[in-house]
Amino acid sequence: MNELQELRVVLANSKDEANPTAEELRALFDRVERIGVIGLSRFPEKAARRVPSYLAAKGYDVVPINPNADRLLGREVYPTLAEVPVELDMVIVFRPSEEAGRHVRDILDRPERPVVWLQEGILAPDEVRDARLAGVLAVQDLCTFKVHRALYG
Question: In the CATH scheme, what architecture does the domain 3-152 have?
Fold first, then answer.
């Protein structure tokens, strides 16, 4: 099975059939450099810490966003997305679905219009639909780790 076939298996498990295709996700990961992570955890055992750590180890510039920490992954942490002073290519949200819509709206307020990525199990259907209608690539209920591993092993 090649990497796109593996990724299609991962995509089939998402609750959002309108997520980008395997080909679109490969193109995304080939161009993304800086990733903001809302809810990057202080606790190493949580997925909200393991996944961003994995992405950082793969060479992505991971920008932690968490109002309850000062430094994570050896980096300065920003309390909110609005306080991040650098352009982001993508923003991953590790917050509950009931909070995710607010974060999607905050991402859409960024002038660089980064990709919206709601981690596996997180959905904000109305806000993701609005992001897509605004021309922003948006993903929900999909694990960045699983996608990256399917693509790059």
Answer: 3-Layer(aba) Sandwich (3.40)
94 and 72 in contact (C-beta within 8 Å)?
no
The residues of the chain scoring below 50 in pLDDT are none
Q: CA nearest 90: which of 25, 37, 21? A: 37
Phi then psi for residue 40, to 5 deg, are -55, 125
Residues 6+ apart with CB under 8 A from 125: 16, 140
The sheet with strand 138-139 has its strands ordered as: 61-65, 34-38, 90-93, 115-118, 138-139
How many other β-carbons are positioned within 10 Å of the β-carbon of residue 47? 16
pLDDT at 153: 84
Task: Give the span between the Cα atoms of 127 and 138, in whole angstroms.
Answer: 10
